[in-house]
Design brief:
The structure holds 2 protein chains of 2 kinds. By secondary structure, chain A is an alpha/beta fold. Helix content of chain A is 30%, strand content 21%. Chain A is built from 6 helices and 12 strands. In chain A, β2, α4 and β3 form a beta-alpha-beta unit. Chain B is an alpha/beta fold. In chain B, β5 and β6 form a beta hairpin. In chain B, α3 crosses α12. Classes of the chains: A alpha/beta, B alpha/beta. Chains A and B meet through α1, α6, β9 and β10 of A and α2, α3, α4, β1 and α5 of B.
Chain lengths: 220, 473
Amino acid sequence: METVRPTAELLDRIRAALRGRTAAEPGLPYVSSRERPPERGRQETIDQFRRRFEELGGIFLAGPPEERALQALGETLRIEGVSALFYPEGDPAARAVADALVPFGPFLLVSPADVLRADPPVSAGIQSAEYAIAETGTLVQTSREGRSQLPGLVSDVHVALLSPDRFVEAMEECLGTLSGDPPRNVSLITGPSRTADIELTLTVGVHGPRKVIAVLLGGG
Amino acid sequence: MEPRTRHFFRSAEKALADHALQVALSRTTAKFLENRAAAVAGYPGFEGARERASRIRQEALDNLDAHLARFLTEARKAGAVVHAARDGREAREIAVGIARDEGVSLAVKGKSMVAEEVGLNGALEAAGIEVVETDLGEYIVQLAGESPSHIIAPAIHKTREEVSRLFEEKLGEPYAEEIGELTRIVRRRLREQFLSAQMGISGANFLCADTGSVVLVTNEGNGRMATTLPRVHLVIAGIDKVIPRLADLPVLLRLIPRSATGQSLSSYVTILTGTRRPGDAEGPEKLHIILLDNGRTGILQGKYREILKCVRCGACLNICPVFQSVGGHAYGWVYPGPLGSVLAPLLLGLPESSPLPDASTLCGACAEVCPVKIPLPEMLVELRADGRAQGLKPPAEVLGMKAYAAMMSRGGILEAFQRIAGVVSQLLFKDGRVRWLPFGLSGWTERRDLPAPAPQPFRKLWKKQRGIRPWKR
């Protein structure tokens, strides 16, 4: 399909419209100054993330000992009525957690494909998150190195695994590392899937997870 | 969508008499305002961020040729096919062409005002392609055969009772007034569509020039589903959506959700760059981006360029006393509220929408909340002047305004008039209310009383009491 000619024409029209431009010179870089995030130690950053995350209705679980965090996770999943667990390929930490959760079940370990059905089981999708942004209580999941979006997309409960080195203070730190050549999909996930489309009444779990759980492993 | 912008006053009257609509509006607008106020109060950097966001958007527009050219290059490099549509008809033709070429019979769609602007669904359906809206509000509106009444809460005009009856009637679901249950019905019904659709359609909140990325800001997760699961992703976006850099996003992302829904960040921000790459776990194989002009280059050229800074947060709708009273449908097109009263006349032409700039009290609240500092009231006044210059005002109004201006700009005449009015007033309106005015002015007194002119004009009182300082009394 020929697309080059119309887009070139569009640029010509814009150029003509901007003739006699007033404000900035063409190509003049405008650098958006950013607010300085507060200087914090790692533990404070984690605490800040936890506060924001819990404000959004998220459940934050942390060791030590890790067994206790996992036990709490298992109980929460049972309360949420979860019957199936899935994790993406190539995520050994998620796999280990899923295996460790089975005794707290009954949980069935399934593949992502089993959840991609018209009538899926009530599922928890477990995945190692790439970043946790303290400013907003946000989890970041990209498509880098074959990572999947499904655990935080099609599940009923999203379980994000974090280690202390994944926490950043503000959005800039995370987007800064991604902006040179961004992966195909960069998703910032802040709380559960929600809507207020009927009478502006907050309702969770529209198309995505109704519950988001962050589990901090490896100290913290 | 056929514009009904010309009929604003008639539609507004109907809206005011619509009881269900008034219930729905009263349940929602106050909540919008409370949520926003709380979110702004919780973010001390809000004012500074507004200034920065305004400059980012202004810079994008002032150099739109360079930024859009960069976007084209980067998006194509990442595998996107970029199309340019001069108007709605071209956009529809391109979209139908894409759907046919890609063998699409079912498309799932996220909320897009630009798609409404060009009537995308109708064109695809006419070509035999089923389009399913997946945003809850849009889904409701589509089922009801209506159009959105708010740019971020499309079904805001409907009560939960009406939604329950709609689902009962159109879907055969049992009547369930509870909002959680209504939401579960939609989740269940749409999951199947997400999985079987060949194409996902979305708008764009931003297009990043330096990376060729499409940015979507959503809450429900439908946008992520529609842009991850189907084989083809079709983006339709106005050329005004470009921002210079991906790194500009944090500033804008801190403002939009707070202004729109009072969230510190929307549930999902998805930054999509190109097509599925080797080794990717999922994602569309094809990405088509339609860049829509539809009058925007014309706006760019003139004195209303700043309206293109708009990020469609809806804050100016919620705060507007006119919108609060009549809702979105009365404005007669895709964009309601103060934003729509400026944008619709510019996109459709003033003759088509001349009442809209008058649909404002010029109270200025919209400009105060706008996260990118668009001078909406000034633009409304300017558009009124344009309307007059184009001969769109009734001669009586023009004459009346001339007389008014002549009187108000001459102190002596004003005072004489006020004195006469004072004497007449004391004779005619003993209780201080004007209850009836003759033809031409009766529009006011049919619904409310007018305070009668005071016996003594203010200027006279001021002269008499000069020297008295009440605060020292």
